[in-house]
Amino acid sequence: MKEATSLALTCLGWSAMTNVLYDGVFAPHADSDKIFLFTPAGKISYAAFSHTTNCLANCLVNNGLKPGDRVAVQADKSVTQLALYAATIKAGGVYLPLNTGYTPHELDYFIGDAKPAIVVVAERVRAAIAPLVTGIGASLLTLNADETGSLTQQANNDSPDFTAIARSSEDLGAILYTSGTTGRSKGAKLCHRNLLSNAKILAESWQFTSDDVLLHMLPIYHTHGLFVASNLLCMVGGSMIFLPKFSSENALAWLPKATSMMGVPTFYTRLLDTPEFTRETANHIRLFISGSAPMLAETHMQFEERTGKIILERYGMTETNMSISNPYEGARIAGTVGKPLPGVEIRIGDAKTGAPVKSGEIGIIEQRGDNVFLGYWQMPEKTAEAFRDDGFFITGDMAHQNKDGYITIVGREKDLIISGGLNVYPKEIEDLIDDMDGVLESAVIGVSHRDFGEAVVAVVVPTDGTLDASTISASLAGRIAKFKQPKAIILTDALPRNTMGKVQKSVLRNTHAELFA
Ligand code: AMP
To answer: What is the pTM for the complete model shown?
Structure first.
């Protein structure tokens, strides 16, 4: 399968002398006057986007970027930021977007680990990270939500001509950090082949064309908003209504002008909570897509009842891009994530050996294909642990597949929490709480929440009666991003443990299951 796909891509014109991702995604429509982005501030044609991309590419090179260098970016969503991604690829660099929720303290780790040549942050963050950035000899530029800052200032004076630097299908295009259960975040290395092949497969599978107008309300530091949405629409020559973030008001105003929408389940539950969201509002949309977190079957059904449309749910992860999807034509089955996408080999394997389990039995999803990343940045041991000898990547997601090929995710092998579509790893929060005065131990779990999918809940055992929940909450507030901060902190006398002394998180989850009901 892998060989066949690679061969097909070679036939499509991939060669070592081209910039595979730039040529496949950004170049085809670069000269077009067609509108690529509709924003609240105005319209941006493909040609204007390409002009900005070239100025930014020259700016990156003038700031020392060489092929293979990383460009780390933590900035509020903007057209310039999207063009900065395109510019990094065109200049042969490796794009490294960072969640805007990360505190300067958290940024230290990513910058120290990735050793970027250029770091771009909002002005408000500059002073806090300047010593570290200059310490590694990197250039520091600023980009604010309103597109001001030293990056645009410099780029405005740079030439709008730039010839793409050659990059092969195996060269890195991006590194996206995914948090690790052991505390350290891992940088997933994504090559040009990974990203371009996935855009092609998704465009075909979901029938995207240049007639599409995608309502884009996702962040662009994550695979969903950056690659799934933006690569795909740009590649087919479609348009995007590019908004800073999701709100029901935004969705209601723009849905009648769009043909498609991509969202995390929270977007859809919030829309359903809005009485003005009606069959008429959704009427113009040919395809609603959901992913990044499980969607309740109940939400699927309510959505169909309200709009007459069936949400297409798909599954993917940072390391694998999109790999399983409900069909465009054919039954979209609520509660399942569909079938393997073309070119993606999926097996549901035994957790220890990887040997395929019997049809219908639960195992771990493993996958192989052009979509699967190259490994973790400077973590050869973690990479080796994540792959089987035959090249299959072990996702850590547990699932079963029915006789028709539909896959249902039943949970995560480890205790990852997904709140509002963003991953939260309990260990990171437990470590911080356990270090606090007056805390004996803690367990952080995900509890079902209609709005966020899951809410972070901390169960804490104090050493004596002096500690209260608000002290813990205040202490966490400045140290971790808001989406990781517990929505409830419960004080208890002891954590439930099994005979081996392990904390039984499933017992805690059951006990607190109704917390947000
Ligand atoms: P990320 O790397 O942030 O994209 O997170 C990937 C994880 O999100 C996967 O490993 C799954 O656990 C989860 N995920 C993504 N899509 C779905 C879905 N449709 N249903 C259930 N879980 C999902």
So the answer is: 0.85
